[in-house]
Design goal:
single chain, alpha+beta, 31% strand, 29% helix, Nuclear Transport Factor 2, Chain: A, five-stranded antiparallel sheet, elongated
């Protein structure tokens, strides 16, 4: 087993260059707790950053090899002259390791924060900050937070090869529609190249947080999540992945359930969105099937036949929650409980009461 660790050369004295600030943040989204991971804060204040070295640590004997991935970096050139036997060229890295080298998340995050402002090349637009971007946001667990860079497989337009990339989506400031994304390439000779994609401003492209809103507004899906999120269980909303495919975007959000007595959450549902079409199912392939067939959703993620006593208890709980939420003025949540109550009572009229499990 080998560990591959990204090493950076940095400076805060590079002339006419914007420094990267991991905090304080540029926007309210970036100022929220947990929005700046520790690896991002290590680059705080630098206005020159290069991921010039990859350190490889052998997990068995602890030996360390340092491979230079950017020989033109003047800082690493100086270190190489001071310690001539310390560094090895990138060509010396075994191919089995080279295939696993990835574009670093902290570097793309820093580049994205700066690019979100400096993509404006018109002086008037730049001065007035008319086209300022911010990192897209999503509902993760129970809070709204910025989307961190994530790895996906992507096929560039006109290419026949699928590549591994690290991408970061953006929205306009104070809006939730997707305006563009940047990506760092990871494979072969393309490693280290950056791609910036801008969506046409006259097109409405859903952002990750809008996908979360669509899920919340789906009566069936929302009722199912409410059923799960009770009786010692917790619903965990996973990361919303915006995956570029040809000239469109496919959104994927996993949903987990974790019991109080369980050590790890369990994947219970996968939600897919393409345009205004939504599909959800226990597995990705089933959800994709429903999306391709243009069905709004596939069957309930998990169903079980409850006894009439259990169904009556479930209906009673939904009614109690409805009364409690109405009295506290939470009318939207009360409406969801009322829908659960209606569905439970409707199915109780039949024999067997086939109901979604909690």
């Amino acid at each position: 087993m080998k560990w591959i660790i990204d090493a950076y050369t940095t400076s805060s004295y590079y002339p006419y260059s914007e420094p990267y600030f991991a905090g304080p943040a540029r926007s309210s989204e970036e100022a929220k707790p947990g929005s700046q991971p520790p690896e991002h804060r290590r680059l705080h204040g630098a206005n020159y950053v290069r991921n010039s070295v990859k350190a490889v640590v052998d997990a068995y004997d602890g030996s360390v090899s340092l491979y230079v991935f950017n020989p033109e970096d003047p800082i690493v050139q100086v270190w190489s002259r001071i310690f001539p036997d310390l560094f090895r060229p990138m060509s010396d890295m075994p191919e089995s390791l080279r295939a696993h080298v990835r574009y670093p998340e902290a570097l793309l995050h820093a580049q994205g924060v700066v690019f979100s402002k400096y993509h404006m090349t018109d002086p008037t637009v730049f001065y007035n900050q008319e086209d300022l971007w911010v990192r897209a946001t999503e509902k993760y667990y129970d809070e709204v937070r910025p989307v961190e860079p994530y790895y996906v497989m992507w096929q560039a337009p006109g290419s026949t090869e699928v590549e591994f990339i690290l991408m970061q989506p953006f929205t306009p400031k104070n809006r939730q529609v997707l305006i563009g994304w940047i990506a760092g390439m990871c494979d072969g000779d393309n490693y280290g190249n950056l791609v910036a994609y801008r969506f046409p401003k006259d097109k409405w492209v859903l952002g990750p947080q809008q996908v979360d809103t669509k899920i919340d507004q789906s009566p069936e899906l929302s009722a199912q999540l409410t059923l799960w999120d009770q009786h010692g269980k917790r619903v965990i909303r996973g990361n919303v992945l915006a995956i570029p495919i040809a000239k469109t975007i496919l959104y994927v959000e996993p949903i987990y359930i974790q019991a109080q007595t369980a050590a790890y959450p369990e994947l219970r549902m996968v939600v897919l969105m393409h345009g205004d079409d939504m599909s959800y199912a226990p597995t990705f392939s089933q959800a994709l099937e429903g999306l391709v067939d243009r069905r709004p959703s596939i069957a309930s993620p998990e169903t079980a036949v409850l006894s009439r006593t259990e169904a009556a208890q479930q209906a009673n709980h939904a009614f109690d929650e409805y009364v409690k939420l109405m009295s506290s003025g939470h009318f939207a949540e009360a409406g969801k409980q009322l829908e659960i109550l209606r569905e439970t009572l409707r199915k109780l009229e039949g024999d067997g009461a086939a109901l979604p499990t909690r």
